[in-house]
Design goal:
- With 136 residues, this protein is α/β, with parallel strands linked by helices.
- The chain has helices at 11-23, 26-31, 33-41, 93-98, and strands at 8-10, 43-45, 60-65, 70-76, 87-89, 106-110, 116-126.
- A hairpin with a 4-residue loop joins β3 (60-65) and β4 (70-76).
- The model has no long low-confidence stretch (mean pLDDT 92).
């Protein structure tokens, strides 16, 4: 069994994500139970108190793959997910898993064509809270 580490989330992100989940049809809400589990286990803090190395909504994150290659993604709300390769929706399983993680932590990532690889969070390139955007 995998033990999950604690995560830190802003009260603003939690409020918005709970509202998003509550607006989904029941069947769809059940598909995103993993996101609700993340919200339930989080330490919730005021936006000003979010550590600068934590993935929050709208953060842009640099990842390193096992091969050493790197890529960047921005964690977005579904309305901002336009299918571009540099964004991941919070409603995608990997998006839900990213929320609240810190620099240095690793996550299993689906490979194109099947299977999984491990990627490491190398850097939070941009985070709204660190930029002083507390009401975005």
């Amino acid at each position: 069994m995998t033990v999950k580490t604690g995560i830190v989330l802003s009260s603003l992100d939690v409020d918005r994500l709970e509202s998003l989940l509550g607006s989904l049809p029941r069947e769809e809400r059940q598909q995103h139970a993993g996101l609700q589990e993340e919200l339930d286990r989080a330490e919730v803090v005021e936006p000003r108190d979010v550590p600068p190395d934590v993935v929050s909504m709208n953060s842009t994150v640099r990842f390193a793959m096992e091969s050493g290659e790197e890529f960047n993604l921005t964690l977005v709300y579904p309305r901002d997910s336009d299918g571009s390769a540099d964004k991941v929706s919070i409603l995608a399983p990997v998006g839900s898993a990213l929320l609240g993680l810190s620099v240095g932590e690793q996550i299993d990532w689906p490979k194109p064509g099947g299977g999984k690889m491990t990627v490491k969070i190398k850097e939070i390139i941009w985070q709204p809270e660190r930029a002083g955007e507390f009401h975005r």
